[in-house]
């Protein structure tokens, strides 16, 4: 396990569309372990592979609830409902925050590190984190959803 450097806004890697994982091997496991260690040590609630320069459809979410680390490989939003407004930030932009509208409830279909498909439903912060991280896999950043960022602190996704 190792901490990886988190790329900051302005880095080209954050604007790329990531490619799906096709091999569920030890290398993927190592990437997930590193993402989780980096996420926890950064005090964030989500981290996507492109944020550490790996252009693959992999992300980890941990909103410090009973789910612990949620490993998302090739995730897709299959259902969403409602809406929520809330402060959002990003580990790739330590000083930027914005009010971002997201669905209030989101169901994601993804694979685990062993290649098993699963679905998971999240509400409120968890739903927000799923949307934010899946956006990263398509080169979309939270600032793309707002006209301007604001100073108050919120959750680091
Ligand atoms: Co982010």
Descriptors:
2 helices, three-stranded mixed beta sheet, binds cobalt (II) ion, 8 strands, 157 residues, alpha+beta, five-stranded antiparallel beta sheet
Extended strand count: 8
Contiguous uncertain segments of 5+ residues: none
- Report Rg: 14 Å
Could you tell me the strand content as a percent range?
25-35%
Architecture overview:
The protein is an alpha+beta fold and 157 residues long. The longest helix has 16 residues, at 26-41. It starts with 25 loop residues before the first helix and ends with a strand. Helices cover 18% and strands 33% of the residues. A hairpin with an 8-residue loop joins strand 2 (58-61) and strand 3 (70-81). It has two helices and eight strands. The mean pLDDT is 95. A five-stranded antiparallel sheet has the order 1-2-3-6-7, sandwiched between helices. It has a three-stranded mixed sheet with strand order 5-4-8. Cobalt (II) ion binds at residues 90-92, 132, 136, 157.
């Amino acid at each position: 396990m190792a901490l990886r450097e988190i790329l900051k806004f302005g880095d080209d890697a954050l604007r790329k569309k990531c490619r799906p994982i096709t091999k569920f091997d030890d290398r993927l496991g190592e990437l997930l372990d590193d993402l989780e260690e980096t996420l926890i040590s950064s005090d964030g609630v989500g981290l996507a592979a492109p944020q550490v320069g790996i252009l693959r459809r992999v992300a980890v979410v941990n909103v410090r609830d009973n789910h612990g680390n949620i490993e998302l490989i090739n995730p897709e939003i299959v259902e969403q409902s409602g809406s929520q407004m809330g402060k959002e930030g990003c580990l790739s932009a330590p000083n930027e925050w914005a009010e971002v509208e997201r669905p209030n409830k989101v169901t994601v279909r993804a694979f685990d590190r062993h290649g098993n498909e699963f679905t998971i439903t999240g509400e409120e912060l968890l739903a927000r984190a799923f949307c934010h991280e899946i956006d990263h896999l398509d080169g979309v950043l939270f600032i793309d959803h707002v006209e301007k960022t604001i100073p108050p602190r919120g959750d680091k996704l």
